[in-house]
Amino acid sequence: MVVIAIAICALILIAGIGIHLRNLHVELEARSEEVESLQQQLELERRELHEVERDLHKLTRAVEHCPLSIVITNAKGEME
User: Fold this and answer.
1) Where are the domains of the chain?
2) What are the angstrom distances between the C-alpha of 52 and each of 6, 43, 55, 69?
3) For the segment 15-65, what is each residue's pLDDT rounded down to a tens digit?
């Protein structure tokens, strides 16, 4: 009788561990999808930053080679 009770307790414990493992697996999948989404967003932002840096470099070269004076102002026409 004691052996049967121990076996039942062990089965209940194993079932509980199985449920816990399944829950952890579901949570892990959700977090993995979130990480993948963040990686994709980071890659997109990295590409956008690269484009902005490239455009800034072009503008800098154009200003450096321009024989005219260049004045930078705000929207009100005030020098920055």
Assistant:
1) 1-80
2) 68, 14, 5, 24
3) 889 888 999 999 999 999 999 999 999 999 999 999 999 999 999 999 889
